[in-house]
Amino acid sequence: MAGLVQAPVWGLLRSVQTENPGRFLLLDHDPDHDLECGSEISPAAADAAVRVLVAGEESQLAVRGGTVLVPRLSRVVKSAAVSEASVRLVSGGTVLVTGASGVLAGVVARHLVAEHGVEHLLLASRRGPDAPGAAELVADLEAAGASVTVAACDVADRDAVRELLAGVPAEVPLRGVVHTAGVVDDGVVEGLSDERVERVLAPKVDAAWHLHELTRDMGLEAFVLYSSVAATLGAGGQGSYAAANAFLDALAQHRHAHGLPALSLAWGLWAQASGITQNLNETDLARMDRLGIIPMATEDALALFDRSIHAERAALLPVRLDLKAFGGRSMPVPSVLRQLVRGPIRKAAAGNGSGPGTEWRDRVAMVAPEERERLVLDLVRTHVATVLGRTDPYGIEERRALKELGFDSLTAVELRNQLSNITGLRLPTTLVFDHPTPAAIADVLLKQIDGAPQTTAQDIMSEIDKLEAALADIDWADAGAAVVSTRLRGLLTKWGRNSGSDTEDLGTASADELFSILDGELER
């Protein structure tokens, strides 16, 4: 149960990570599975977890039974040919489809009748028979030989769901559920309110839980949840949507572990417009294209639906990915995709004067001041065009307000992230709002580049001498001394990683000391 409660938080934080690269790390420790130390994480596991997180190559970890695990997606090998009966979602009875006024619900309802032989459908939506397109859908289904009941039901209301299920005729008992209901309310996490989050969670989380509990003893053969890839990859600007779908994925795993039928389908982008995607503009589509997410034709999506229902997995991602697209990205490849994407993996900008951005800053620093201004402005205009899905960066007017070009809170964050990654500079999340034109942003970058001091080894040695003198006078009985010690360990570890030199083994540090090191890393 704890995993179900925490799953939406994990989904939300994946979106937070997307909106704020390099600033948040996720570590999931389950005391019930740590066989070595009971409720305490073992020193070895803590050591391994801190090493991985501090190295910056992983953004999510889980510790189970003293073992550090990282998330990876892998391909599902196509199953051997199956009989027509095994392809069917259910062997008989009634199938409930929620969110029935939505486009995807209509698509799957028609598919269930035409290809799965479903003869009895219960279609539930808030408006029921009064929903646009409901009459046409019923006519199509009945013409195909199915009996159809359309009900007005808010599936987020437990009593309403109970009443809906009680109305299913005993001669055609409920045998399957396909839960497609859902809404979106996009916006960066800082702009979300309790009301906005609740609006998105209710039709997915509350409804799925009610359906789970109220059908648990009904002998279902299928329980399918329509989730989203946003929950797995983390979608900037869709924190609440990612949270809701992360719960669906976790619920499917929970049911599967308890011997109940369950399948969560974390869909990618459908080419066919739906209530979830109909408001996507060119900028949104360009963003998804940069993520390597390719729209799926309806027939391809339904083929994946059919393959999924007999794949014997609790959660799957039916999605088309252009894995080659990651080779040209300015942003790092999500760690969860690294088993699928070949080639070097770039780390997110650390902003510490080394690593990503160093080469670009060095190149800019070598040219004349007037040429430097042009290079920086061209960089800004190029990424403005990229974020907006435009192909001509020189069509971006340098003194025109970005808001007039179509920027919103999400595109503002995305531009900041791209510029931060390519330059290695620490840029505020309010960059676009504080400096609302390409020229103003270029000026900010120039000032940071020009003001960045060139630290030499001799400068560092001088500071180390001062530090050594200060350490000689420290009272090691002082509680703060342990913090100093672990902070220094963390600095040494980080420096050793960047320089390629050997570093002190952290294995002798306590769990508290190791997490203090991690805290020190996150504070910078």
UniProtKB/TrEMBL annotation:
Any Pfam family the entry gives: PP-binding
All residue ranges annotated as the Carrier domain in the record: 374-449
TM spans (from-to): none
Keyword Nucleus found: no
UniProt keyword Transferase present: yes
InterPro entries documented for this protein: ACP-like_sf (IPR036736), KR_dom (IPR057326), NAD(P)-bd_dom_sf (IPR036291), PKS_KR (IPR013968), PKS_NRPS_Biosynth_Enz (IPR050091), PKS_PP-bd (IPR020806), PP-bd_ACP (IPR009081), Ppantetheine_attach_site (IPR006162)
Any one GO biological process: fatty acid biosynthetic process
One Gene Ontology term of the molecular function aspect: phosphopantetheine binding
UniProt keywords, alphabetically: Multifunctional enzyme, Phosphopantetheine, Phosphoprotein, Transferase
Protein name per the record: Carrier domain-containing protein
Lineage: Bacteria, Bacillati, Actinomycetota, Actinomycetes, Kitasatosporales
